[in-house]
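Model it.
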Amino acid sequence: VKSLKWLQKQQNKDGSWGDGPQNYKCAMTGLSLLSYLAHCETPLSEDFGDTVLKGISFLVDQGMKSPVISLVPQMNEVSYDHAIATYALCEAYTFCKQMDIPSIANLEQVVTKAVDQIMKGQNANGGWAYNYVTGWNVQALKAAEHGGIKPSRGEIRAALRKAAMYCRKTALPDGLFSYQENGREPRASLVGVGVLSLQMCGSGSDSTARKGLDWMLKNTNQPFNWKANNTSSNLYQHYYGVQAAMNRGGDVWKAYNRAFRDSTLGAQASDGSFMPNGFGGPGGVVQTSQNRHANDRIYRQCLATLMLEVYYRFLPGTGEGARNF
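Modeled.
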């Protein structure tokens, strides 16, 4: 709650969050919205309703202007903006639909167009143009499926099966996942991405996912060092890892829970923000610790908040049932 109150103070007048030299406002707005939605905040919430509504409206307005939800749709990394914004809007659409919240103008239209864009952007190999953004696109498609979105460019389930095939192509025998196919650029930060994506695609029990979870269990044996500026403090890695571990449960969740919970809580300042940890948000490396742009602060805040909000998930985030884990 302290974190959500801090985020509320950072919201721009136009309903967005973030700024910075490459202007990832749509991605930062999407992450912020997801932080509120994961705490079951809606446009009708007493404390945060107006904040949520303004954030949704900002993304819907961008979606009405262009099929790509971004202020800079020509950028190579637009998949960050569009995928995260689509994920948030799909979640918002589902909330409004299930809770009989009055419809928000153009929300359904924009959500459908946005999902169409993700379907269009999927490559024949099952991945997307900007390789490691696969995780955001999978989450967006899964949220769309939960909400009953019907894209005009094919079936979401078929797209998720293709995405699972791609994830398997990026997996290594030791449980690591790589930045590209066939083991090129393996990274610890992608293990949780690969495992969660497989879980959401209905393949959480196959050998690739199990090897990834085994790697996580083997390499999660001490509390995260928030200030280390290494894989121990990479919130991108742990945002995915926490979800994958909780979906699986058992020893891997117990280990991950011990490693991240107290370290994350201990990194929160009295004003609700989370202290710098050496990893900048989308748009490149932060220049100096004194000159951190808004995206860096919002990105860190949202990932840390979403990690802690995993406790609110009473059912697996895949919506598929235990047979897939």
